[in-house]
Write a structure and sequence with these properties.
alpha+beta, binds zinc ion, 216 residues, six-stranded antiparallel sheet, 11 strands, 8 helices, single chain
Length: 216
């Protein structure tokens, strides 16, 4: 699991380079909108990337390629969203996500899967499941491992697993054989934006009743 409950360097650098697919861009930019600290950290990573490019021998990379990359780094996405982020990051539904679902979690059409409800987003993004998950207070998501990446951003309330407690604005990155059973905090439903690029694999009992949760 990622340290400090923020983006992994790998995700942050890929975002800065424009290499992420739309579901992960939505998650990263919503996270950045919610946290001054995350934006500051993102900028410092971009600076590191720029410094590394400066050390490249001129003959190693064609000047035109190098100039294009440097131009891209001159206007990093984190800077571009900075101005609006201070306003929209504090909103119930942070700006980048509000463009998809509106400004409130109330009145949305949740699909109930037992203690967990979901709303699917970005259905056209092939190879991904992008969804809002709402876990009832104190309820748990079925225990599972992952066959790919699972990136989860907490939007309301909190959840915990054996790796720690994740609160509003935190990102949980789970991959591969991490076997976990996320449990929502007791006092409030936990709402998350979750992006997966492969099916989850249930590790508890009653799996055939829970298939809708893991289907990709
Ligand atoms: Zn998971």
């Amino acid at each position: 699991m990622n340290e400090g409950h923020h983006l992994t360097d790998e995700l942050a650098v890929a975002h800065a380079a424009g290499l992420l697919d739309e579901p992960l861009v939505l998650l990263v930019e919503t996270h950045l909108a919610m946290s001054d600290e995350a934006r500051a950290r993102h900028r410092s990573l971009e600076a590191v990337g720029g410094a590394l490019l400066d050390e490249i021998e001129p003959e190693a990379v064609g000047a035109d390629v190098r100039d294009r990359v440097l131009a891209m780094l001159d206007v990093p996405p984190a800077i571009r969203i900075d101005a609006a982020a201070a306003r929209c990051g504090k909103a119930v539904v942070p700006g980048p996500l509000a463009r998809h679902i509106g400004s409130s979690f109330d009145g949305l059409k949740w699909r109930a899967l037992g203690p967990v409800s979901e709303i699917r987003l970005l259905p056209q993004a092939e190879g991904y499941v992008t969804r809002l998950l709402k876990i009832k207070p104190g309820a748990s998501v079925p225990g599972h491992t992952h066959e790919g990446l699972e990136a989860t951003l907490v939007l309301q309330g909190s959840f915990s697993d054996h790796t720690g407690v994740f609160r509003r604005g935190d990102v949980a990155i789970a991959e591969g054989d991490l076997d976990h059973t996320p449990v929502a905090g007791e006092h409030e439903a936990c709402i998350c934006l979750a992006v997966t690029d492969a099916p989850l694999r249930l590790t508890g009992g009653f799996t055939r009743f829970l298939n809708p949760f893991v289907r990709i």
